[in-house]
Amino acid sequence: MSNLIVKPTASPDGTVLTITPQSAGWSYVGFQVIRLSEGDVFRQATETNEVCLVLLSGVADIATKRETWTGIGQRMSVFEKIPPYSVYVPHDDEYEVRAKTALELAVCKAPGTSGRSARLIAPEQVGVEIRGQGSTERQIHNILPEQESADSLLVVEVFTPGGHWSSYPPHKHDRDALPEESLLEETYYYRVQPEQGYAIQRVYTDDRSLDEMLVVKDGEAVMVPKGYHPVSAPPGYEVYYLNVMAGPVRTWKFHNDPEHAWILSKPVV
């Protein structure tokens, strides 16, 4: 198995998947998935990180040191394709999540420095767009884009229909070379419907020192430390993924693979 794929492993506190900068061998992005039953509680201190809590499915009460939100969440599956409720929590804070229903929670982490206030990101604040055309068309939910307040984190979710491609044409963001390209580490957390399906993701560099073709199953994550990283959803299977990105500068400037950039000018048939 590729060392870029992270598989779920259940823990007593509800944690089913964990990526840290130490386990990934990088500097910025941390990620967890928590699954709770109704009435279960998950608590964690943010320490030196800012955190974006994304309610992937289910309803919860969430409290930080100074704020409380009750009964947030509306979708029971990511494949309802409506924007999620999320909560931003700054560094040097803590949060408690109390599940009101069965709950799947994503915990997105990156270095925090400014001491911003905790805030709710309601569905109506999430930018929704259709990106691409033809077999590259997919639905985007911009949960925490660079236009919204944060220190490091960029968070977005993508719905790729069966038979379509996303993160396409192949692009990368692994050089600190602004304004042309920004250096951003990235994780992909996958859900697939029907769940016996899979996604295909290729991760490769120009010199092919990294060149892996990954078969990713429902509930698994992929770490993208560098290189281009397109995704394909096989016919009959809808693919969802949550992206978390962070780097030295909080901006998304990507570079398309020059071998495939011509696709952008190709007429849709």
From TrEMBL:
SUPFAM superfamilies attached to this UniProt entry: RmlC-like cupins (SSF51182)
PANTHER family, per the entry: 5-DEOXY-GLUCURONATE ISOMERASE
InterPro entries: Deoxy-glucuronate_isom_IolB, KduI/IolB_isomerase, RmlC-like_jellyroll, RmlC_Cupin_sf
Keyword Ribonucleoprotein listed: no
Keyword annotations: Isomerase
Alphabetized Pfam families for the sequence: KduI (PF04962)
Any one Gene Ontology molecular-function term assigned to this protein's record: 5-deoxy-D-glucuronate isomerase activity
Documented EC number(s): 5.3.1.30
UniProt-recorded name of the protein: 5-deoxy-glucuronate isomerase
